[in-house]
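User: Sequence in, structure out. Go.
Assistant: Echoing your sequence, followed by the structure tokens.
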Amino acid sequence: MVSIVTWNINSVRLRAEQVVRFLSEQRPDVLCLQEIKCAEHLFPHQVFEDAGYTHRAVHGQKGYHGVATVSRLPLREFSRHDWQDNGEARHVGVELLGAEAGGAQGLVIENVYIPAGGDVPDRDVNSKFGQKLDFLERMTRWADALDRPTLIVGDFNVAPLPEDVYDHKALLKVVSHTPIEIEALARFAHAHGWVDLGRKHLPAPQRNWTWWSYRTYWQEKDRGRRLDHMWASPDLAAQSVTHRFVEETRRWEQPSDHVPLVTEFDL
């Protein structure tokens, strides 16, 4: 069994102790982090080395964005994309290697942080929204050409289903749940036939939030959205056996506003 996690950590250096706690309690084989918010030379490598995650691929930048994949299993960096051609560190892929990986040897894991898109869902008045849509379009062309089983995980910043938000009608004009974003994400899904593991194992209308705003979470009104995802090629998806979200991390001291997702595969 191979366990893979995705988590938007919202600053890996600020929350290094939380990551170590999570790794100690959950013991995944691979952890994919988004929004690490540090340049590569400032990534806390020793923290992960001491925790037993001795294999790492880091694509970072100063203060913003950034993705990193850390693993107990050997890996090599497989891909690194700049879908906006603007230097933002938002996508790194790895391939698991060696006998230690067992049946997961050769598995490709793509770790992505899709732009949030700003506040106004109109590319004519909000360039960030246009960048988000263009990012998804370029990823769609890339996905269409994939020719091997792949797992793509991360903060997609889109909640695609009505049941993926606390109030579908109220959020139809709110960035992350607008029809234009949902349609763009659907095109990406269809390009490779991706299987949404969150909804394979926790089908709608089951509650499956991954993000709660810092502004409203403590009101205990459960205004969540499912912005984080783990999608797999069809053959790989058939080998997934469990999927869950670890909501307790959202109640830790100074937490990320996202929670980890965990999928186990029988490879």
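User: And one key feature?
Assistant: Helices lie at 16-26, 45-50, 127-144, 168-171, 179-192, 197-201, 234-237.
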